[in-house]
Structure formats: structure tokens, C-alpha cells
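RECORD CONTENTS
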Amino acid sequence: MSASDTQPQGRIPPVAFLGVLAAISPLSLSIPAQSIPDISNSFATPYGTAQLIISAFLLSFAISQLVVGPLSDRLGRKPVLYGGLLIYGLASLAAAFASSIEWLILARVLQGMGGCAALVTPRAVVQDTHKGLDAARMMAFVAMLQSVAPAVGPIIGGGIDALLGWRWIFGFLAIVAGLMALGASIWLDETRPLTAGRPDSWGTIFLRYTRLLNSRLYIGYTLAFTFGTTGFFGFLAVGPALLIENRGLPPFGFSLCLMIIASQFVTGAYISSRLVKKIGIDNTLWIATVGITVPAFALLAYADSQSVIPIVAPIVVFAFFNGFIFPNALAGATSVDPRIAGSASSFLGFAQLGTGAVIAFILSNMATDSAAPLALFLLGLGLLTALGMLLVRSAIR
């Protein structure tokens, strides 16, 4: 049975809703970032421990995708999405009422478990309903909308923290979960592909999953996606210490820096959606690979500067080319076998966020008076992205 024999069901949902739905994850990640020092003080715990609300969320989110993706291929996109939003909403309320840092971290773990369904579903739906370059373009539009969350998240979080305290940040996320469930009931039909009118069996899904993991093309795109987009997590983990604690930037100023950085991802995704039509997915990714590597050298050169701009400017350029990598590597990987787009997307997310969690944990436990560790990590990530693209090239030949 070929991929063409498997037909998706349902209408094409509005791309705006898919983008907003996918934005839950980066919103959840970035919205409490500027409040980490506050949370650390509230529970009288070290900064490195409070930072676990970021890395624990990332790690939980990453691992859960390995389950959520195959579930969405077998049970359908909508049931898995509803279940995930329910867990996410309840965990958000638990975080708002956490009585200790341990309970807050546990609530963030549960948030990550539920929230990953909101990321896997839009990616799978795009691949269900669009193919080839069209899928890459649609993925770019979803990524553009999704990336608004890191831009506005810290602003929203900072405003809520200043007016009501950091606990209300998680109350806000619980409300968001309810609104997304309502939106899904209105705009989202079931799009999971069916074979001869039936969903594939678990055995068929896992057989295709195994073949996918043996595909050099899929692994190459996965490496490019993973290493090309995880640098932001490292900055998110150490940025507050670098800029707020060591360079005196006010928390709201840090939120503005995050907004500028994230807005460049939006710009990059938009330009990439136009560029990919002219030069194709792989050429666009090669340009991006160079684009994320060069800023690392600039950051390394000015790593000990006490000014904010030499630290933030290279991250801005890095984020711009992240906007090239994210939709195109994602579209390339999930198009290898569209019949298991959910599973393909979930492993991609696991690799990306799992790597991001490890990077965030390592960097947050290193010296934060200099940006040199972050710069070296970004340089290494650029070289590993190039390795992934070389694997893609060898698979196509």
C-alpha cells in the first residue's frame, strides 16, 4: 500500500487556528522565564533549582511526544488533542497553587505531558492536508504564528507577575487551554489518514515508524531540525542570569529582548516561505545553516562584554535563521512517510526538546557571568546542523 492509497479525512482547518494551537508550547515555555528569580526567592531555593521549571517542562514535553505521536496516528488527531489539553489545563491550575518548588516542578512536568498534544496535532494536520513545497509553506505560516508566543509570552508573563504575582501566570495558561479546546470543537475536523476506510493497526504504525528511523533522509532532516533550533532554549535558560543578574537589565527589559529575538523568528519564517518556492527546501536549509553558525563567532568575541547589545544582537540573527530551519526541516522530515506524520513529528519534537532540555540544564549549571559557554554551544549546534544536511544530501544522491 503506497502513501497515495491512504487518504486524509475532513476539511482543511484555518491555518491561524493551527498556529495559535501550536503556540501553547512555546508560550508555556517562555511565559515564566522572567519570573525565575522571583520564584527562586518565593521558595528560598537556588536559581539553578528554580530554573528546572524550564528544563523539566522541556524534558517532559520531549519524552511525551514519543507516545502522543503514535496515539494520534492510531486514535485520531482530535481525541488525543482533547486529552492533552485536559491534562495541561489541570496541571496549570496545580502550578498556580503549588506550595513548594518540588510541587511546581511536578506540575510543569504534567504541563509538558499534556501540552505536547497541542504541538504534535497541528504539525500532523498540516502534513495530512498539504504536500511537498505547499506543506513547507503552510508549516512556515504555522511556525510564524507559533513563534509569536515567545515574543509576547514574556511580556504577558511580566505584566501578570507585576500586577498579580507569578502564580497567576499559570492561571492564565489554564484559561488558554479551555479556549483552545473550544476552538478545536469549532474549527478542527479529524484529518488522520485512513487506509481502505480504516485507521492503520498498531503493528503497521510501528513498522512504518521503524522504517522511518532507518531512513537517512529522515534522520538528516531530524538532525538539522534538532540542532538548528535548540540554541534558543539555551539562551532562555541562562539569559535571565546573563542579562538580569549580571548586567543589571530589568526583568521587563529582558522580556523586551525576548520579544525582539522571537520577532526575528517570525520574519525569518515569512521570508523562508517565499524563498522556498524559488530555491527549494534543501537550499533554504543550507543558507540557514550558515546563518546560525556565523553569529556564534560574534557572541564568542564579545562574550565578556558588560553591555546588553553585544549579547543580544547575535541571538537576534540566530533566531532569524531559525525561522528558515524550523518549517523546512519539519516539512522535509514529515513528508518522508505522510501516513505516520504524527509519529514522525513526535520523534522530531522529542529530539529537539530533549536536546534543548539537556542544553538548558548544562548551561544553567555553568558560570553565567560570561556568554562564552552559550557561544560555544551555538557554534557546536551550527556544525551539527551542517552534519544533518550532509546526511540529507547523501540520501538524495
In short: The longest helix spans residues 251-301. The chain has one domain: 14-396. The radius of gyration is 20 Å. The chain has a mean pLDDT of 84.
